[in-house]
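General statements about sequence and structure are easier to judge against a single worked case. For one protein, we set the task of working out the structure tokens from the amino acid sequence alone. The sequence in question and its structure tokens are set out directly beneath this paragraph.
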Amino acid sequence: MDLQLQEKTAFITGATAGIGFATAQSLAREGARIILNGRAEEKLNRSIRKLQQAYPEASISGLAANFSKPNEVRALLEKLPAIDILINNVGMYESGSFFEEGEEDWYRQFEVNVMSGVRLSKELLPKMLSNNWGRILFISSECATLVPVDLIPYSMTKAAVLSVSRGLAQLTKGSGVTVNTVVPGSTLSEGAELFLENTAKKEGKTKAQVEEAFFTEVRTSSLLQRFAKVEEVANTITYLTSPLSSATNGVAIKVDGGSMGGII
């Protein structure tokens, strides 16, 4: 299927690994121009080179910025060219006790996970509306509703993203611009791989045994009963960035393997 993404320019935050990098790969295959973002210049450049080697015909570049630092975000906004597709993927989480976490832990996660998308959308949405075409996607998490007790601040930010996304979508009424949220479930990112490896060593098990136990003992609501591949999430994101998704606006699309339950 041709997703009609040739000549579209996409900016992906947090794109040097995980879902962000897989999305960059998927968009590059479709012929879109890609601008990656990462915190560290060196890692960002490695990711750019990796994509350029895999897709030599694609236009791939990058802009480094740490979204916990508003001054770096302002500098990034001054460098951004015209953007057709904004994917607010950057995020962070910290596992900890509610009773021990300080206010700074809450603010830090809110700054990166929510305000990054707010600042970028405030800059780019008016231009998309003026062009009568654009796509903004926020990446949330199943934790927005499942809320693990050691991830309460993180879950709060991922729930907030849903409200921001829906509110912005309402500003696009009658236009060719859409704003949606993708809600992944447990996904085999680099962080998840590290969790499996460390737990396997600690408990004297294989990674496969640890993964099975996670879904039979912790994420029991999952119908998939395995970690989703980052490519599986990226496939959905890529479709929603395309002109073919024009009737999908203001919604949260689950790629959660059924873990969040419900019929909608």
